[in-house]
Design brief:
Strand order of the largest sheet: 2-3-1-4-5
Distance between the termini: 12 Å
Number of strands: 5
Order of helices and strands: EHEHHHHEEEH
Helix content: 40-55%
Number of helices: 6
Structural class: alpha/beta
Largest sheet: 5 strands, parallel
CATH topology: Rossmann fold
Length: 177
């Protein structure tokens, strides 16, 4: 299993969609569209910890939750602790399907100290100059200070090339043993 990771706005999703590779899983979408639904246990845990202002009748209000956790590292840690077991369960299910190469897009840096590193055979980090990241991600620019360890197996793709060039680099990095 391969993870493609990097800061929000670095181009992970754009490159993966442009690659047209199969079995790509976007963890943010899994969390928002499955785990944050009202009938999930995670919905009720988030409501319990963050209050009814972050939920509607049908799902978690991600923008309201984001405003709370992105401005408070302690609350972000609480959210990460709540969500972690669900993500690990999802990754375990993917790992059981050994007949396919699964590619997971994760909007957080994976480093050697990461709780998720053991799930992946290869880590690909998409880096992009902060000045190139869309203004809508301004609140995140200085929140993530990645440790990019040279011992990580995988490639670091700096997405300052044309889209097709960067996409080819990504595909090569994923498919190269």
């Amino acid at each position: 299993m391969v993870v493609v990771t990097g800061k929000a706005g670095s181009g992970k999703s754009t490159l993966l969609k442009n690659s047209k590779l199969e079995n790509v899983h976007y963890l943010d979408d899994v969390v928002k569209n499955i785990l944050y639904k009202r009938n999930s246990k995670l919905y009720w845990e988030i409501k319990k910890h963050f209050g009814k202002k972050v939920v509607s009748l049908f799902k978690v209000k991600t923008k309201k939750l984001g405003k709370i956790v992105f401005n408070d590292s302690k609350k972000m840690a609480i959210l990460n602790d709540i969500v972690e077991p669900y993500i690990k369960t999802y990754l375990n299910i993917l790992k059981l399907d050994k007949d396919k190469l699964h590619i997971v897009e994760m909007a957080a840096y994976i480093n050697l100290e990461s709780k998720y590193k053991s799930f992946f055979d290869k880590v690909i980090i998409i880096k992009r100059n902060n000045n190139d990241i869309s203004n809508k991600f301004n609140y995140l620019k200085n929140k993530v200070n990645p440790i990019i360890n040279k011992d990580i197996e995988g490639a670091i793709i700096i997405k300052n090339d044309l889209l097709d060039v960067s996409t080819k680099k990504l595909i090569d990095a994923i498919l190269t043993k």
